[in-house]
C-alpha cells in the first residue's frame, strides 16, 4: 500500500472500519504529510492538529465499542477559511477578520462533524474569495503543487493545493464565479459547484450571495458524491436552500447527449483546446453523443457577473466596522464615520476595488444602466441555457481558458485577472451545477474539463465524470518531494 | 471616466479610506473595469424583466417561535451595564 | 393647490409578535439587560442569513388590508445600504417598490371621514435597528457611545402616505384611527415606549417640502406640524425662501431644528435582498386572512349600531376606546342589556376611570370587572336599586372590588318596597311637614316635595312609585 495520506475518502472509511489502520494512524500520516510539504505550499491559514488527533482517537474508541463512526468516520477535511467554524479562527484571508473566532458552525460543518469527519484546519483563499490565484490573500499566496512557481488558482487555492498534495482527504471550497473549479482545474483535482440552493450557505461568509455555493474539492468523483450527499439538503437556516435527492455512483453511464460550447473553445489557449477536443473524443468510448453548439449571450456573461458580484459584495462587506467583532483598535476619540473608514482601510486593494465598483453600479445614477441590465442578462442567459438543456444533457468546455500561470503575471491588471473567470461564471449566473475534472497536462501544467448540467441534474454530471475518470489515464499525484 | 472626485465620493459612501497610492491608481483601474462592463448597455432596456431564480412559499417560512439558545455573538468586551462601546456619534 | 400639504411616514413595531423579523430572538426587547436579546443573525455575524418570520408577513398584510391597500401575490425584500453603528450589517432589510410593487401593501385609500380620503403610498415590512444610548452628560463630552442591539431586527411596519393632509387636525384624526386599527388588529401596542415613530413632511403654498424626522409619539406629531407651519408661514411672510431640508423635532423644547447637512447625503443603493427568495403569498392568501382577521373598528361600529341598537354617538364613544368596548361586550355576555350597560359605562363608569386613561392597562388593573357591572345593571333593571344608589355602589366597589350585591346588603342600599316601612316614613313626614301637607291638598307640585322628603328620610332607598301611591292615599284619607 502507498502512503495512507494518499487514500481517497471512501478508502479511508473502509480501511478504518475494517481495521486495516486506525483513524489515529491515518490522521498522523496526513499531519506528517502537512509537515513535509506545507512550507512549500502554504495551503493552511489555521491548522488544528491536536483537535484532529483527539477526534481520531474518539473514532477509534467508538469503533472499539462497536459504535457507529459515521459515513465519513476518519476522513480529514480542510475547510476554506470563509466558512464559519465554531471556536476555530475564520479569517477570509483578510486582516479585518484576522482575530475573528466564530461562535457557531456553518450548516455544512455541522453535517460533516455529525458524520464523523475530522475538521483539520482552514485553507487559504483570495481575500473574501475575490481573486483567482490566492495572491490576494492578505497572509500569503498558496503555491501550485504541480509547479511551485505557478499559482494554484483561486479563490479556493488552499483547497485545491491541499487536496492535490495529500494534505487532507477532501476539502470544502466555495464558488462564486469559479472559485472551486478554477483551483481544482489548476491543481488537477475534481471540484463541483452544486446547483444554487442545493447546499446550505449558512456559515459561508458572503461575497455574492445570489451566485455562490459551497462545494467539495476531492481527488476522485466518488469522493465528491460522498461529500455531496452529506452536505446537501434543505436547511431551516437558509431560506434559499432547497431539498434534492441524493446522488449515486453508477457503473455504466447512460447515453448522454453532450454539446461542446464553441465560444468556450474559441477563447482558449491552443494547448487547452487540444486536450478538450481529445477528451471529447473519449466521450464516444463511453457511448455519449458529442456536438458543438453556441451560446449567444455569452459575451455579456462576465460583465454581468462582475456587476452583480461587486454590487452584492459592496453591501455584504459593509458589516465589517469592527464594532461587534474584529480586531483590536481603540474607539476612543474617533467620530464614528472616521472610525469606520479607518477600520475598513484594512481591506486589501482588490476588495476595495470591488466595493467601489459595487457602490458605483448601485448608485442612483447608474443602477439601471449596470445593475438592472446585468440582472436582465442573467435572466436571458438562464433561459437560453434551460432551452439548450432540453436538447442536451450536458454542456462541456475547458474549465479555464488558460494554463496555470506564474505568480505576478496578472496581479497588476485587475481586468486581466477577471478574464480568467470567463468560462466558470456561466454556471453561477444561471444557478446550474458544474464540475471540473482533470483531463490532461501541458508542459506539466494541469488542464480541466468543465461539465455543466441543468439545475439539480448533478447525477448526470457525476455519471459522465465517473465514466470519463475511469477512461482517462493521467498522473494523479504531483511529485512534490 | 471616473474622476478623482467621483472616486472620493464612492470611497465616502463605502466608508473606505484610500491610501495615496490607491487614490492614484484606482481611477484608471476602475475605469478599465467600467469600460468592460459598459457592453451591458448594448442589451435592450425595454421591459427590464428580472427573472428571479428563487421563490419560496409563504407556508414554508419560519414559525414565530422564540429560541434563545444561540451562542455569544459579540466578540468584544461589554460595559458593566451590558452595553457595547462604540465610537462617538458627534 | 391647497395651502398646506402634509404627508406622513409612520413606523410601528409589530409588538404582538413573539420573535424578531429574521431570527428567533424575542420580539419584546423591553426591560431586558442590554445585549442579552441578540444572536448571530441579528448581530449580523459573517455567514449568517435572515430567516423570515411568517407571522410578520401575516400581521403586516392585515394592516395593509385595514388601510385599504392592494396586497400583491408575491413580495420581495430589498437592501437599503447605509452605515450607522446601530445597524449591525450596515444595511437594513426593507422593501422597496420599483417596476411593479413588491412591498406588502401599496396604493391604498383610507377614508378619514365622509368627505376626506387619504392615499396610502405603500406599506412595507422591515427590521428595526439597535439603539444608541445617550447617557447623562451628553454625547459631546464623552469619547464613545453605548450600543444595545436588543432591538435590532424587531419587525417594523412603515406606512407612507401621500401629502393629502391639509391641516394638523386631519393628521391627528388619522393617527387616532390608525392607533385604533392597530389595537383592534392586536398587532401593535402604540402606547409602548418607542413602538411608534413618525416622520412628517410639510409644505406650504406649493413650496419646498420640509421633512421632520423622528417624532417619537403620535401625540407630538400635531405639535411638530403646528410649529412647522408657523415657522414656514413666518418665513414666507418675510420673503425668505423655504429650503427643502430635513429637520428634527426636539420634544423638550417643542421646536424643529435643522439636521446637519451631512445626514441628507444619502444614496441608499437599494437592490433586491439575495438571501430572501421572492415570497409567494398565493391567490387566496388575502381572502383567507380576511376571513380570519380580527374585527376592524368600522366593522365593530356597524355591528354595535345594528345588533345592539346603540346610537352612533354611544357606539363611537365605546369603539374609540377599544378596551372599554371590549369591557362592554364582556359585560353583555353576562347580562344582555346593551343600552343600559352602554349608557352606564360611558357615563358613570367612564367618569370614574377618566383620570387613568393614559396607562395602557387601565382596564386590566381595575378591580371592577364585567361581572360587577352586569350585576349592578341587573339590579337597576330589576328595580332593586335606584340609579343614584347604583352610582354610589360603583364608587364603593371601585376601590374594594367587592360585588355590588354585597355592598348593597352591607350598606342597606336596596330599595324599600315594603309598604309598612314606607307608611311609617310617610307618617313621619306628614307629622313634621304639616304646612306642606296642607299645601299639597290644593297644589299638586307640593306632592313632589313630600315625596322628596320621604326619599330623604329613607336615604334614597324608597321605591318612588309605591311611596307616591302611599302619599296620595294618605292625603285622601285625612281629607
What does this structure look like?
The complex is a heterotrimer of chains A (481), B (90) and C (479). Helix content of chain A is 39%, strand content 13%. Chain A has helices spanning 9-17, 23-41, 49-64, 107-114, 157-165, 181-186, 221-231, 262-266, 270-285, 301-316, 336-344, 349-362, 367-391, 414-419, 425-430, 458-471; strands at residues 44-47, 76-80, 118-123, 170-175, 190-193, 213-218, 257-261, 289-293, 394-398, 434-442, 445-453. An 11-stranded mixed sheet of chain A has the order 1-3-2-4-6-5-10-11-9-7-8, sandwiched between helices. In chain A, α4 (107-114) links the parallel β2 (76-80) and β3. Chain B has a domain at 4-41. In chain B, 31% of the residues lie in helices and 8% in strands. Chain B contains 2 helices and 2 strands. The longest helix of chain B has 18 residues, at 20-37. Chain C has 479 residues and is an alpha+beta fold. Chain C folds into 3 domains: 4-286, no CATH class; 295-410, no CATH class; 419-477, Orthogonal Bundle (Arc Repressor Mutant, subunit A). Chain C has helices spanning 54-66, 168-185, 218-237, 285-292, 297-307, 312-319, 322-334, 338-353, 370-381, 387-400, 404-410, 419-432, 434-442, 445-457, 464-477; strands spanning 4-13, 74-75, 78-81, 91-94, 105-113, 116-127, 131-133, 144-148, 155-161, 196-204, 210-215, 245-250, 255-258, 271-272, 278-280. The N and C termini of chain C lie far apart (82 Å). Chain A binds chain C through residues 82-84, 90, 92, 97, 100, 102-104, 106, 201-206, 208-210, 236-240, 311-312, 314-315, 318-319, 321, 323-325, 331-333, 336-337, 340, 359, 362-364, 367, 371, and chain C through 40, 43-52, 79, 81, 83-85, 88-91, 143-145, 147, 149, 267, 269-271, 274-277.
Amino acid at each position: 500500500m502507498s502512503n495512507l495520506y494518499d487514500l481517497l475518502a471512501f478508502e479511508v472509511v473502509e480501511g478504518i472500519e475494517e481495521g486495516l489502520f486506525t483513524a489515529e494512524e491515518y490522521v498522523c500520516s496526513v499531519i506528517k504529510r502537512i509537515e513535509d510539504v506545507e512550507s512549500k505550499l502554504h495551503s493552511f491559514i489555521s491548522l488544528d492538529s491536536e483537535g484532529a488527533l483527539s477526534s481520531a482517537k474518539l473514532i477509534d474508541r467508538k469503533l472499539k465499542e462497536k459504535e457507529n463512526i459515521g459515513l465519513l468516520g476518519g476522513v480529514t477535511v480542510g475547510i476554506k477559511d470563509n466558512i464559519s467554524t465554531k471556536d476555530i479562527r475564520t479569517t477570509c484571508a483578510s486582516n479585518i477578520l484576522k482575530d475573528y473566532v466564530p461562535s457557531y458552525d456553518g450548516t455544512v460543518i455541522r453535517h460533516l462533524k455529525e458524520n464523523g469527519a475530522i475538521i483539520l484546519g482552514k485553507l487559504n483563499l483570495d481575500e473574501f474569495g475575490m481573486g483567482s490565484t490566492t495572491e490576494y490573500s492578505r497572509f500569503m499566496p498558496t503555491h501550485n503543487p504541480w509547479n511551485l512557481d505557478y499559482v494554484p488558482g483561486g479563490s479556493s487555492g488552499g483547497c485545491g493545493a491541499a487536496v492535490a498534495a495529500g494534505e487532507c482527504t477532501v476539502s470544502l471550497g466555495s464558488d462564486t464565479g469559479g472559485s472551486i473549479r478554477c483551483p481544482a482545474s489548476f491543481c488537477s483535482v475534481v471540484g463541483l459547484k452544486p446547483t444554487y440552493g442545493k447546499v446550505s450557505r449558512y456559515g459561508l461568509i458572503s461575497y455574492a450571495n445570489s451566485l455562490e455555493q459551497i462545494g467539495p474539492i476531492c481527488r476522485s468523483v466518488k469522493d465528491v458524491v460522498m461529500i455531496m450527499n452529506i452536505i446537501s439538503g434543505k436547511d431551516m437556516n437558509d431560506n434559499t436552500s432547497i431539498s434534492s435527492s441524493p446522488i449515486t455512483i453508477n457503473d455504466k453511464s447512460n447515453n448522454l447527449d453532450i454539446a461542446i460550447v464553441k465560444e468556450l473553445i474559441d477563447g482558449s489557449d491552443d494547448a487547452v483546446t487540444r486536450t478538450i477536443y481529445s477528451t471529447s473524443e473519449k466521450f464516444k468510448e463511453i457511448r455519449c453523443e458529442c456536438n458543438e453548439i453556441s451560446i449567444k449571450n455569452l459575451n455579456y456573461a462576465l460583465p454581468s457577473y462582475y456587476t452583480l458580484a461587486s454590487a452584492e459584495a459592496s453591501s455584504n462587506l459593509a458589516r465589517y466596522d469592527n464594532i461587534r467583532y474584529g480586531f483590536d483598535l481603540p474607539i476612543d476619540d474617533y467620530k464614528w464615520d472616521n472610525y469606520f473608514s479607518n477600520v475598513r482601510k484594512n481591506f486589501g486593494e482588490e476588495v476595495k476595488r470591488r466595493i467601489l465598483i459595487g457602490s458605483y453600479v448601485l448608485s442612483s445614477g447608474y443602477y439601471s444602466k449596470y445593475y438592472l441590465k446585468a440582472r436582465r442578462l442573467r435572466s436571458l442567459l438562464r433561459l437560453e441555457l434551460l432551452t439548450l438543456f432540453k436538447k442536451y444533457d450536458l454542456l462541456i468546455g475547458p474549465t479555464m481558458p488558460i494554463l496555470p500561470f506564474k505568480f505576478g503575471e496578472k496581479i497588476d491588471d485587475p481586468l486581466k485577472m477577471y478574464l480568467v473567470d470567463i468560462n466558470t461564471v456561466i454556471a453561477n449566473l444561471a444557478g446550474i451545477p458544474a464540475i471540473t475534472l482533470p483531463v490532461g497536462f501541458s508542459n506539466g501544467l494541469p488542464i480541466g474539463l468543465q461539465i455543466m448540467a441543468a439545475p439539480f441534474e448533478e447525477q448526470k454530471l457525476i455519471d459522465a465524470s465517473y465514466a470519463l475518470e475511469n477512461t482517462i489515464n493521467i498522473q494523479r499525484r504531483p511529485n512534490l518531494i | 471616466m471616473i474622476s478623482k472626485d467621483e472616486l472620493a465620493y464612492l470611497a465616502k459612501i463605502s466608508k473606505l479610506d484610500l491610501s495615496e497610492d490607491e487614490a492614484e491608481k484606482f481611477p484608471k483601474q476602475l475605469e478599465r473595469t467600467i469600460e468592460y462592463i459598459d457592453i451591458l448597455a448594448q442589451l435592450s432596456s425595454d421591459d427590464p424583466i428580472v427573472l428571479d431564480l428563487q421563490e419560496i412559499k409563504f407556508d414554508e417560512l419560519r414559525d414565530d417561535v422564540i429560541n434563545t439558545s444561540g451562542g455569544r455573538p459579540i466578540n468584544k468586551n461589554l460595559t458593566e451595564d451590558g452595553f457595547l462601546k462604540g465610537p462617538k456619534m458627534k | 393647490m391647497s395651502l398646506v400639504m402634509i404627508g406622513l411616514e409612520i413606523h410601528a413595531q409589530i409588538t404582538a409578535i413573539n420573535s424578531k423579523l429574521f431570527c428567533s430572538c424575542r420580539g419584546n426587547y423591553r426591560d431586558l439587560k442590554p445585549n442579552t436579546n441578540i444572536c448571530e443573525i441579528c448581530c449580523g455575524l459573517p455567514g449568517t442569513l435572515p430567516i423570515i418570520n411568517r407571522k410578520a408577513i401575516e400581521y403586516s398584510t392585515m394592516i395593509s388590508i385595514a388601510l385599504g391597500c392592494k396586497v400583491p401575490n408575491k413580495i420581495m425584500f430589498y437592501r437599503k445600504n447605509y452605515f450607522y453603528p446601530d445597524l449591525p450589517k450596515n444595511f437594513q432589510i426593507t422593501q422597496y417598490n420599483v417596476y411593479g410593487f413588491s412591498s406588502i401593501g401599496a396604493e391604498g385609500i383610507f377614508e378619514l371621514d365622509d368627505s376626506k380620503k387619504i392615499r396610502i403610498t405603500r406599506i412595507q415590512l422591515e427590521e428595526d435597528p439597535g439603539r444608541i444610548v445617550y447617557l447623562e452628560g451628553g454625547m459631546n463630552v464623552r469619547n464613545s457611545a453605548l450600543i444595545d442591539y436588543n432591538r435590532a431586527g424587531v419587525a417594523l411596519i412603515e406606512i407612507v402616505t401621500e401629502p393629502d393632509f391639509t391641516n394638523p387636525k386631519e393628521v391627528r384624526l388619522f393617527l387616532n384611527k390608525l392607533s385604533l386599527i392597530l389595537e383592534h388588529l392586536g398587532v401593535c401596542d402604540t402606547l409602548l415606549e418607542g413602538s411608534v415613530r413618525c416622520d412628517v413632511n410639510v409644505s406650504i403654498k406649493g413650496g419646498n417640502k420640509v421633512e421632520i424626522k423622528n417624532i417619537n409619539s403620535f401625540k407630538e406629531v400635531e405639535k411638530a406640524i403646528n410649529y412647522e407651519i408657523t415657522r414656514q408661514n413666518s418665513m414666507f411672510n418675510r420673503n425668505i425662501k423655504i429650503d427643502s431640508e430635513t429637520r428634527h423635532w426636539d420634544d423638550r423644547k417643542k421646536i424643529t431644528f435643522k439636521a446637519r447637512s451631512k445626514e441628507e447625503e444619502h444614496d441608499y443603493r437599494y437592490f433586491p435582498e439575495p438571501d430572501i427568495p421572492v415570497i409567494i403569498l398565493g391567490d387566496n392568501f388575502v381572502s383567507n386572512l380576511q376571513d380570519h382577521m380580527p374585527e376592524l373598528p368600522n366593522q365593530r361600529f356597524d355591528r354595535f349600531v345594528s345588533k345592539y341598537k346603540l346610537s352612533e354617538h354611544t357606539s363611537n364613544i365605546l369603539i374609540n376606546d377599544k378596551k372599554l368596548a371590549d369591557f362592554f361586550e364582556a359585560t353583555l355576555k353576562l347580562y344582555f342589556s346593551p343600552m343600559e350597560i352602554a349608557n352606564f359605562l360611558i357615563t358613570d363608569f367612564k367618569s370614574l376611570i377618566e383620570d387613568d386613561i393614559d396607562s395602557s392597562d387601565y382596564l386590566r388593573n381595575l378591580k371592577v370587572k364585567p361581572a360587577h357591572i352586569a350585576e349592578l345593571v341587573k339590579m337597576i333593571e330589576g328595580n332593586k336599586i335606584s340609579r343614584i344608589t347604583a352610582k354610589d355602589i360603583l364608587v364603593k366597589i371601585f376601590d374594594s372590588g367587592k360585588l355590588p350585591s354585597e355592598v348593597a346588603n352591607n350598606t342597606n342600599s336596596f330599595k324599600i318596597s315594603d309598604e309598612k316601612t314606607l307608611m311609617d316614613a310617610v307618617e313621619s313626614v306628614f307629622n313634621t311637614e304639616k304646612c306642606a301637607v296642607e299645601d299639597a291638598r290644593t297644589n299638586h307640585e307640593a306632592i313632589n316635595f313630600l315625596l322628596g322628603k320621604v326619599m330623604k328620610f329613607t336615604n334614597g332607598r324608597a321605591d318612588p312609585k309605591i311611596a307616591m301611591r302611599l302619599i296620595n292615599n294618605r292625603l285622601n284619607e285625612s281629607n
